[in-house]
Design goal:
Strand content: 35-45%
Strand order of the largest sheet: 4-3-2-5-1-6-7
Number of domains: 1
Radius of gyration: 16 Å
Low-confidence stretches: 131-150
Length: 150
């Protein structure tokens, strides 16, 4: 099968920065975060980056969509952030040639690194596809709560 080594990862991050960050600074940090995820995948031996994308929303502070489809870490963007003290991000990593646990490790490590500011807290939830999982049952879904303190 041509897609036997496909990995599709989805996550939601909710970040409370503990202080207001200006839009330009936060936008630069998010772009670098996305670039590093793609470069880490390349360093781990990814065969093909199908699409690494995110949408970040700040309540009353704009949005930023980021997209990477290359092995050089170049990030395309749409939107603009006006700054804020919290944000929510939906992140998708669709690649060929790396196992899910490798992608999860990369995202977790980079999220901790890039959103580490004094007093910040982050909730990182791995999203499960409705087609892949029956939600009519009684158990907890995969979720990790990460507190980031400097």
């Amino acid at each position: 099968m041509i897609t036997e080594d496909f990995t599709g990862y989805g996550a939601r991050m909710e970040v409370d920065l503990g202080q207001r960050i200006e839009g330009e600074s936060l936008q630069a940090r998010l772009i670098e975060f996305m670039s590093r995820i793609s470069m880490d995948c390349v360093e781990e031996g990814v065969k093909l980056i199908g699409h690494i994308k995110s949408i970040t929303d700040i309540p009353d502070g704009g949005y930023l969509a980021c997209s990477v489809t290359n092995h050089e870490g170049r990030v395309r963007t749409d939107g603009e952030l006006n700054g804020g003290s919290s944000f929510e991000m939906i992140l998708n990593v669709m690649i060929y040639g790396l196992e899910m646990d490798v992608v999860e490790r990369i995202v977790d490590r980079r999220a901790r690194e890039y959103f580490e500011v004094d007093g910040a807290t982050m909730k990182l939830e791995i999203l499960e596809g409705e087609d892949d999982h029956d939600h009519d049952h009684d158990h907890e879904h995969s979720e990790s709560n990460v507190s980031i303190n400097t």
